[in-house]
């Protein structure tokens, strides 16, 4: 037998890809402490914490509007299965966290869907889980979005198109209310 044949089987590693966006990211540089485009290993028994406090959080967001600990991600294996998942918990007393359309108050937690959008304040994070088999650790791979994540994901309107061919439904960014437009202004 060759050394190649005797080598241990290589395990694939679960990787959590997270793409961050904030409308003021260029001016305020709140993501300057995040390590983008490089995978980082996190022990399976550690909790990945995101927030402002660098003594507690491994993933620091440099913004006074972010809680000391905004949210955490816990890696776990579902009971009686080989499936690995992440649980997300809101640790902010002041800011609600939404995962897709589910709103989480302080200490609320849910399983992270394999692909979802996490929002709090003006922050948008696209989270995508790449499955693996390793039980000792998982990896995070952070990315920076150039455009709003929510607007990129807007689906075409299913409403009827008016005769002038211009639809009155627009994708709205979070926190903004619709504005009325006179048809003559179009």
In short, what is this structure?
This protein has 186 residues and is mainly beta.
Mean pLDDT: 83
How do the strands line up in the largest sheet?
2-12-1-11-10-7-8
Distance between the termini: 75 Å
Radius of gyration: 20 Å
How many DSSP E strands? 12
Using the alpha-carbon principal axes, give the shape.
globular
Main β-sheet: number of strands, strand sense, barrel status?
A: 7 strands, mixed
Helical content band: under 10%
Order of helices and strands: HEHEEEEEEEEEEEH
Number of helices: 3
Structural class: mainly beta
Residue fraction in strands: 25-35%
Protein name: TRAF-interacting protein with FHA domain-containing protein A
Keywords: Cytoplasm, Immunity, Innate immunity
GO biological process, one term: innate immune response
GO cellular component, one term: cytoplasm
How is the secondary structure organized here?
Blueprint: H1 3-6, E1 15-21, H2 25-28, E2 40-43, E3 47-51, E4 59-60, E5 71-77, E6 84-90, E7 97-99, E8 102-104, E9 109-111, E10 115-120, E11 123-130, E12 137-144, H3 149-152
Parallel strand pairs: 1-12, 3-4
Antiparallel strand pairs: 1-11, 2-12, 3-5, 5-6, 6-9, 7-8, 7-10, 10-11
Task: Describe the overall structure.
- By secondary structure, the protein is mostly beta strands.
- Helices cover 6% and strands 34% of the residues.
- The protein is built from 3 helices and 12 strands; from the N terminus they run H-E-H-E-E-E-E-E-E-E-E-E-E-E-H.
- It has helices spanning 3-6, 25-28, 149-152; strands at residues 15-21, 40-43, 47-51, 59-60, 71-77, 84-90, 97-99, 102-104, 109-111, 115-120, 123-130, 137-144.
- The strands form 2 sheets. Strands 2-12-1-11-10-7-8 form a 7-stranded mixed beta sheet, with no helix packed on it.
- The protein is globular, with a radius of gyration of 20 Å.
- Mean pLDDT is 83; it is low at 153-162 and 164-177.
């Amino acid at each position: 037998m060759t050394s190649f044949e005797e080598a241990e089987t290589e395990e694939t590693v679960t990787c959590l890809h997270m793409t961050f966006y904030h409308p003021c990211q260029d001016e305020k540089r709140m993501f300057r402490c995040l390590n983008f485009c490089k995978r980082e290993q996190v022990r399976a028994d550690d909790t990945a914490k995101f927030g402002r406090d660098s003594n507690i959080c491994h993933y620091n967001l440099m913004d006074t509007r972010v809680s000391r600990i905004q949210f955490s991600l816990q890696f776990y294996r579902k009971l009686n299965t080989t499936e690995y998942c992440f649980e997300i918990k809101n640790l902010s007393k002041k800011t609600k966290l939404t995962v897709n359309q589910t709103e989480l108050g302080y200490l609320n937690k849910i399983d992270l869907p394999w692909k979802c959008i996490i929002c709090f304040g003006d922050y948008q994070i696209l989270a995508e889980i790449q499955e693996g088999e390793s039980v000792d650790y998982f990896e995070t791979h952070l990315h920076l979005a150039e455009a709003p994540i929510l607007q990129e994901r807007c689906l075409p309107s299913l409403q009827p198109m008016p005769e002038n061919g211009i639809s009155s439904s627009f994708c709205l960014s979070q926190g903004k209310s619709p504005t009325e437009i006179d048809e003559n202004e179009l």
